[in-house]
Structures are given as structure tokens and as C-alpha cells.
Design brief:
Length: 269
């Protein structure tokens, strides 16, 4: 489906206007990430493009299946269309990538691109720098990281950000032990979405909108895809996730460095 630049801007205006109308007066759950959400007139079938290698494929697929248990939300796993190193967003989709993004303090990083509070596209980066060996090179850390970052692309914030308290039994909870077997964070595993996450999504996606991106409809055809790439309209804002995995990574240069990075990301947006 071909759109002119003017047509794209008109689409964004309609999407944002519909959001302001339908969301008025709504009380969002604590776990909502600033009200960011995909619009829906019916069930959502969000394309999740996998640009990851074999070390990550099963974890991304499992997380997509787990989140698809939410009411009115399914992830449709498709071949990725974004170069792994850049992990550029693709309109109407979530693109998941892995790569060596360096010693920057985060295991995974989600970004949603939105007009107002309406999510139009999203990316997830999984940082191989910390998974090439050592503490985080385990099935449990890979499972929680993939699950948490994909959860953010639905508009969910963290369930809890204190990594030393007892596990909440959800991948959206910070922890020192995602398995719940080391005796440091209780006995619950933080590897998959929890009941609290699905309850929050039920509230976030309870209302029905007046418009929905064609790419997120169950009947969408791949030939109708629209990619904005790096030349997207100015109305789209890149919004880094509300907090990163930085607090997990030993040797990271402190919260100040994390904040400097986040500020830099906002300037780029």
C-alpha cells in the first residue's frame, strides 16, 4: 500500500485524534507506560519481526506466544525486515534484533514510536555484549530479557524496579535471580508474563477505538506493508523504555551514565 508523505501525516493526525477522544476519562493502571498503546477496533494481530540469530530465536518466539495469551492481543511472528545492527523501526510492526551494542549497561532496550500516546511502531534490542559469557549467559536471563522488552512494546511499564526484593512471578519485575532458585529473591520465577501484567493489559486495551492500523488487523496482507524507515514523519516520537536493565549490570558507570544515555536518546528523537 503506497502512501504519500502528506497521506502519512493525515493518517497520524486521525490516529492521534481518535486516541484523545476514546481515552478521555480513562483510569489507567499503575503498570501503564504513560498511556502508550496500539489502537484497536477489534482484535490486534501485531507483526513481530524476528531479526535475531539462533541463540535468541527460541526465546523471542516463546515470549511472543506468552504475550499472545492477553485478551484482544496476538503477536504474529514474521521474518524481520530490519538490519540487525541498526534495528530500524518498520511502520505498524515490532522489530526485534540482537547484536553487540557494547558495554552500555543494558541487557535489552525497547523503544516505541508514537504519535501522542498511540504506538505506531516499536523496536527491541537484545545486547549480546552481556550474553557472550558470564553471569547473564543463561537461558533464564535470555528468557526474562526477551519477555520484558516485548512486554514494553505493548505499553507496559515495569511491575517492580527493586531488584533485591522477592520476585513477583513476572518478567516485568527487576530481580537478581530470574529463576527464583538461588535464595536471593524468593522462590517465584520471573521468566514469563504474570497475572498482574495481563490484568493491566486488560485495562489498557479495554476500550475500542474508531481506527486501527491496517498492519495490526488479523486480515492484513503482507503486500500492504508500509515502511517509514529513517525518513518517517516528524509527528512520530521515539520513546525509550521507562527504565533500562542498567541496574542489573555489574561494573556499569552508575545511574548518572544511564541518565546521560537516556537524554541523548531523547535528543535524537
Amino acid at each position: 500500500m503506497a502512501f504519500s508523505r502528506t497521506g502519512i501525516r493525515r493518517l497520524l493526525t486521525l490516529v492521534a485524534s481518535a486516541s484523545l477522544t476514546t481515552a478521555a476519562g480513562a483510569t489507567l493502571p499503575t503498570q501503564s507506560w504513560n498511556g502508550y498503546h496500539w489502537q484497536r477496533t477489534g482484535p490486534l494481530a501485531i507483526q513481530l519481526g524476528s531479526n535475531v540469530g539462533s541463540a535468541w530465536g527460541s526465546y523471542v518466539a516463546a515470549a511472543a506466544t506468552e504475550w499472545s495469551a492477553a485478551n484482544n492481543i496476538d503477536f504474529v511472528q514474521v521474518r524481520g525486515t530490519s538490519p540487525t545492527s541498526a534495528c530500524n523501526p518498520v511502520f505498524g510492526t515490532v522489530q526485534v534484533c540482537n547484536g553487540n551494542y557494547g558495554k552500555n549497561g543494558w541487557l535489552g532496550y525497547a523503544t516505541v514510536y508514537a504519535s501522542g500516546t498511540v504506538i505506531l511502531e516499536a523496536t527491541v534490542k537484545l545486547n549480546d555484549y552481556y550474553f557472550a559469557g558470564g553471569t547473564y549467559d543463561t537461558a533464564a536471563w535470555r528468557a526474562q530479557t526477551a519477555c520484558q522488552e516485548i512486554g514494553h512494546t505493548l505499553g507496559l511499564a515495569h511491575n517492580d524496579t527493586i531488584r533485591t526484593d522477592a520476585n513477583k512471578g513476572t518478567c516485568m519485575d527487576y530481580t537478581n535471580d530470574p529463576t527464583g532458585t538461588r535464595g536471593t529473591n524468593g522462590t517465584l520465577a520471573n521468566l514469563t508474563p504474570g497475572a498482574s501484567d495481563f490484568a493491566a493489559l486488560n485495562v489498557i486495551y479495554a476500550h475500542v477505538d474508531t481506527t486501527q492500523l491496517p498492519q495490526t488487523r488479523p486480515s492484513f496482507r503482507a503486500s500492504d506493508a508500509l515502511s517509514l524507515g529513517d525518513d518517517g514523519p516528524d509527528a512520530i516520537q521515539a520513546l525509550p523504555e521507562p527504565a533500562t536493565w542498567a541496574l542489573f549490570v555489574a561494573g556499569f558507570g552508575g545511574v548518572g551514565a544511564m541518565l546521560r544515555r537516556r537524554q541523548a536518546d531523547l535528543r535524537i528523537a
